[in-house]
Specification:
This protein is mainly beta and 78 residues long. It has strands at residues 8-9, 12-16, 19-27, 32-40, 45-50, 53-54, 57-63, 70-76.
Length: 78
Amino acid sequence: MACMKNSRSRMGIAVLHDYIYVVGGIGVRSQHMTAVERYSIKEVRFESVREGEREEAATSCARRESSPRLSIDIVADL
């Protein structure tokens, strides 16, 4: 398995179609991350979907039953 571009812990994870999405988390310098990466199961690699980090942020991901899209919410300055 390929490595993520941004190391992190306490992140959100979602699976949609042939991708594993990794959302937010705590970075190596203990910063709250808003970056989103996805792992392509077919191509065996990670790619950035959204870059970024904030001093304080909360990130979540969810998929509605009626929608084929993944919803990613970022709430900053908590």
